[in-house]
Design goal:
Largest sheet: 2 strands, antiparallel
Protein name: ARM repeat superfamily protein
Keywords: Membrane, Transmembrane, Transmembrane helix
InterPro entries: ARM-like, ARM-type_fold
Length: 725
């Protein structure tokens, strides 16, 4: 199965998990340490890993080498026999016919050996060159065949005739000596002809080289040259050293040798071999394991990325494919970035005048950006962030297609990874990304593309970028002030036209849009006003969304932030949130974790806009008694005796709601005292942590510290209870 590099896939099957399990930036994320994969000690020649296709070539090279060496040894023995025994011992008594036959055989054999050595050398040097070069190799080939055939014919003729001149006494030993010599010459010639027949049968008739090239996904002109050279080199090693030397060769190590120690043309050939192998499902893993342990090979591949000659686009593409596949493996990605100048070489791909190279460069950066330190290096590479952003733009007259659309998607993926980087590095990267004037406008163009195949994934990526950038307060204000961003997010979050059938992709976009709006509303009075305006100068649609299971958590979070940060000028408008009090109170009584958490926070803000009579009416409509509500809040504090990673602010929201209830209706003070709220509050005060002090988290780093701490809320609640007592 052929695995061509999938640089940017289309829409993926997005599954919407349970809201209680969906991670967001409003909860901290622990670093997950995954153990390295277990690798079997042997990966070659076992039942699950059959021999690679090139093994057929090395086996053929072994067979041919056995025949060639056997013929050569017989030839050597025949030469010694002729010179030492016949020409030295019987030179005077030899007949004229035998003398010239022996001399001819020795000369012809010398010509064959000379032609053989030059043929192998010529085949190795001229593989893949012009047919002017191929013709010379054929001359050497036919010269050997003629030499071997003439030797076989002449030797056989003399053995058949056996008319040796001289006296009877001289003919006794000389007859045997000549028979041995002609027999050796005949055997040598026949072995060589058998070797040539085997070569012609397997390589010519059965086209073994072409079949192996196809099996290795090298069925191109360059691939055919690579396979042929591999075969000749394997055969040469079997001839020049041990006959088993060629068996240890495989295409990966052969390509590695070409890459690191070969000439410029050989380096190009080695890169093309590796690219073909890593694009194959069958050979990719084994190839990457071998390349990943070769530092010189990785360095040479990185160097090739920056080759800028117009004639070197193909080799540059091959090197980029291999580097892309390497960087998909964490340890290999670290080896790549340790090479001096590696990031600059990768960045050079983004300046190439070939779309595929641009896309490969973005894909490599996307792989590298999975590591925190690599994100820092990307940010520090001069001009790289600007170049990455430049690929995220979509032209105004419609979305691009083909390779350009993939480049947009891959650019968004890289920017998303960079914007979601944690810690100080992430803070600096988000600031640098938001400072680039094209970042938000390009994202807006992506969001405004509609009804195109695969656009849902583009939307999700674009929204996630905005959400991450908005963790920075200045960027949050800048995003909200960019025309069309807020209104587009609102339209995606609560579209006017609802789909007849469920669409998981669009539901995922709605969830992400809600998180982005909640983030933009956090601590920003101006953004809150823009969001209210985008919803039609009201919050009725948001209140209705509290009944939508897809976006209920996002809707509640947006409403809570609007109530908290919108400012006095919107107080009258925000009174509309009280129409959702019944739904929120029911959620508090029956829901768990995240939905319970945000419902507690929203209820506390709703009470600011409600009169005591409205609260009692809402409780009655929801079928909730005062005592049941008070008991639920006490049980929440009891259940969450310590801060929770999943719902880090649930105790804070519970205390806020308890305080609001006590201030709204004195009956709740009595109920809380009777239910033991004071003891639960003391336990909360003793277990507070920094986890509860922040609204947003970048990994495990808290951002946007809250103005009111849990400890101060405990003090306020205790004071209210003491005053009533």
């Amino acid at each position: 199965m052929d695995r061509r590099v999938s640089l940017a896939t289309g829409s993926v099957n997005v599954l919407i998990p349970d809201h209680d399990q969906l991670p967001t930036l409003f909860e901290p994320q622990k670093a997950v340490i995954t153990p390295p994969p277990r690798v079997r000690a042997s990966v070659v020649d076992d039942e699950d890993n059959p021999a690679p296709p090139e093994r057929r070539l090395t086996m053929l090279a072994l067979q041919l080498a056995v025949l060639e060496k056997a013929a050569s040894r017989l030839g050597t023995l025949g030469f010694i026999w002729a010179t030492v025994v016949l020409l030295a011992g019987f030179a005077i008594t030899l007949g004229q016919t035998d003398f010239w036959c022996i001399t001819t055989l020795l000369l012809v054999e010398g010509v064959r050996i000379l032609g053989r050595s030059h043929e192998l050398e010529w085949q190795h040097e001229t593989t893949g060159r012009a047919p002017v070069s191929w013709a010379v190799g054929r001359v050497f080939h036919w010269l050997q065949l003629l030499s071997a055939s003439s030797c076989a014919a002449l030797s056989l003729l003399r053995l058949v005739h056996q008319r040796y001149d001289g006296s009877e006494l001289a003919r006794v030993n000389r007859h045997s000596a000549l028979d041995i010599f002609y027999g050796l010459a005949l055997a040598e010639a026949l072995l060589f002809l058998v070797e040539k027949a085997l070569w012609q049968w397997t390589v010519g008739h059965h086209r073994l080289l072409e079949r192996v090239a196809t099996d290795c996904h090298l069925a191109t002109d360059c691939g055919a040259v690579a396979v042929r050279r591999f075969f000749y080199d394997s055969y040469s090693r079997c001839l020049n050293g041990s006959i088993f030397d060629g068996l240890h060769m495989d295409l990966v190590f052969y390509a590695d040798d070409l890459l690191t120690a070969g000439s410029h043309d050989e380096q190009r050939l080695g890169a093309s071999i590796l690219a073909a192998l890593v694009e194959s499902d069958r050979f990719a893993d084994a190839t990457l394991r071998k390349i990943g342990t070769s530092g010189p090979s990785i360095e040479r591949l990185i160097e090739m990325l920056s080759w800028k000659n117009a004639s070197e686009k193909n080799v540059r593409r091959s090197a980029a494919v291999v580097v892309f596949m390497l960087t998909g493996r964490k340890l290999d990605a670290l080896r790549v970035t340790r090479i001096p100048g590696a990031m600059e070489s990768v960045a050079s791909l983004l300046y190439a005048d070939l779309d595929e190279l641009n896309l490969l460069g973005l894909s490599i950066l996307n792989n590298l950006a999975r590591d925190h330190d690599n994100c820092d290096k990307i940010g520090k590479t001069r001009g790289l962030l600007d170049r990455i952003i430049s690929y995220s733009g979509i032209v105004a007259n419609g979305p691009p297609t083909g390779m350009r659309l993939k480049a947009v998607k891959q650019s968004l993926r890289v920017v998303k990874r960079l914007a979601s980087t944690t810690g100080t590095t992430g803070k600096l990267l988000r600031r640098e990304l938001s400072d680039i004037v094209f970042t938000v406008s390009n994202v807006r163009e992506v969001l405004q593309q509609q009804d195109e195949k695969g656009v849902s994934e583009l939307h999700r990526l674009a929204i996630e970028i905005l959400t991450n950038l908005a963790m920075d307060e200045e960027a949050r204000e800048m995003i909200g002030a960019t025309g069309g961003v807020v209104s587009t997010l609102v339209a995606m979050f609560l579209p006017e036209k609802q789909e007849a059938a469920p669409d998981r992709h669009k539901d995922a976009v709605r969830v992400e849009a809600g998180e982005a709006l909640a983030m933009l509303a956090l601590g920003s009075r101006r953004n809150c006003g823009a969001i209210i305006m985008a919803f039609g100068r009201g919050v009725e649609r948001l209140v209705e969304a509290l009944s939508d299971p897809i976006v209920v958590i996002s809707a509640a979070r947006i409403l809570r932030n609007l109530c908290t940060y919108a400012g006095d000028e919107w107080q009258l408008t925000l009174r509309g949130v009280t129409t959702g009090a019944t739904k929120v109170l029911r959620n508090i009584m029956v829901e768990k974790t995240k939905l319970l958490n945000i419902s507690l926070g929203l209820a506390a803000q709703m009470l600011r806009f409600m009169q005591p009579g409205e609260l009692r009416a809402s409780l009655a409509t929801a079928g909730v008694t005062d005592a049941a509500l008070a008991r639920t809040l006490v049980l929440v504090l009891r259940e969450y005796s310590r801060p929770s990673l999943l719902v880090p602010r649930i105790r804070l929201y519970t205390l806020e709601l308890a305080i609001a209830l006590m201030r709204s209706d004195a009956r709740f003070v009595t109920l809380f005292v009777e239910l033991g709220m004071e003891a639960e509050q003391r336990r909360v005060a003793e277990t507070t942590s920094g986890l509860e002090c922040f609204n947003v988290f970048s990994g495990s780093v808290g951002l946007s510290r809250r103005a009111v701490s849990v400890a101060s809320l405990v003090d306020s609640a205790m004071e209210l209870m003491r005053q009533q007592a």
